[in-house]
Design brief:
alpha+beta; two-stranded antiparallel sheet; 50% helix; globular
C-alpha cells in the first residue's frame, strides 16, 4: 500500500517522538542524575544528565533564556509544519521532505521536555535564583501531578555519551595545558540525533534543491500561498 507523503511525514515524526520520549521517561524514572552505565566498553555510555538549555548540553541565558528558547521552539515548529505542508503540495523531493521532517521531530521532542517535564515529574533540575544557576537533585524521579517546575521551565533529558578519546592537553597548548580533554564530550538524545542527521543530510544530499529554494526567483513562489 502506497502512503501519501503527508502520512509518511506523520509516521516518521511520530516514531521519532515515541522512541525519544519513551527512552527519556525510562532514564528519568530509573536513573539518578549523573548515573551512568556502559553499553559498549568505555566509549559508549548511557549517562543521565538534564539540560536546561539547547541541544548537546549547551545552556542559554538562564531562566529567562529558557522561556525565550522554548517560545522560539514553538515558533520554529509552527513555521516548519507550514513549510513542510507547502513542500508536499509542491511535490518537492521526498528526501528533502524527510530531512526537514527529522529536524521537526527533534525540535518537538526537546520542546516536550522543556514545556511539560516540569509538570509531570516530581523532581528535576531547577533554577536557583539566589545562586543564579541551575541545581540538580537527588534520588530517582517519578511521574507526578505535582510537578517540579512551571510550564516551559522543564529540563531536557540527555543520555548518549561517546567519550571516544580521553586524554590531556599537551604542555605547549595555550591556556589549556595539562587539562583533561574528552572527545566527544556533549551528552545528547534521540531528538538531537534527528535534528543533526536531518541537517547534515540536507547539506550532503539535497544541495540542488536547497539551491532552488535559495534562488531569488523561487523564494516568492515558496512563500506564496
Amino acid at each position: 500500500m502506497k502512503y501519501p507523503m503527508s502520512c509518511k511525514v506523520v509516521i516518521l515524526v511520530t516514531v521519532v517522538l515515541l522512541f525519544d520520549q519513551m527512552l527519556k521517561i525510562w532514564v528519568k524514572t530509573n536513573m539518578f542524575l549523573g548515573q551512568e552505565f556502559s553499553v559498549f566498553e568505555n566509549w559508549f555510555l548511557i549517562r543521565f544528565v538534564e539540560n536546561p538549555g539547547m541541544a548537546f548540553g549547551f545552556e542559554f541565558g538562564g531562566k529567562v533564556g529558557k522561556i525565550f528558547l522554548n517560545i522560539f521552539r514553538l515558533i520554529f515548529i509552527a513555521i516548519f509544519i507550514y513549510f513542510i505542508r507547502k513542500q508536499i503540495r509542491k511535490k518537492a523531493p521526498q528526501g528533502f521532505i524527510i530531512c526537514v521532517s527529522l529536524i521537526l521531530a527533534g525540535a518537538i521532542g526537546n520542546l516536550i521536555d522543556g514545556a511539560l517535564f516540569g509538570l509531570i515529574f516530581d523532581s528535576g533540575t531547577t533554577f536557583n535564583t539566589e545562586l543564579g544557576i541551575y541545581v540538580g537533585y537527588s534520588g530517582v524521579s517519578q511521574l507526578s501531578n505535582d510537578g517540579y517546575a512551571p510550564f516551559l521551565h522543564g529540563c531536557v533529558v540527555d543520555m548518549f555519551f561517546f567519550p571516544l578519546i580521553e586524554t590531556t592537553y599537551p604542555d605547549w597548548f595555550p591556556f589549556m595545558a595539562g587539562k583533561s580533554f574528552v572527545f566527544f564530550r556533549p551528552v545528547f538524545n534521540i531528538a538531537d540525533i534527528a535534528v543533526t542527521s536531518g541537517t547534515f543530510s540536507l547539506i550532503l544530499f539535497q544541495k540542488s534543491y536547497l539551491k532552488t529554494i535559495a534562488n531569488g526567483k523561487e523564494i516568492g513562489q515558496l512563500i506564496k500561498m
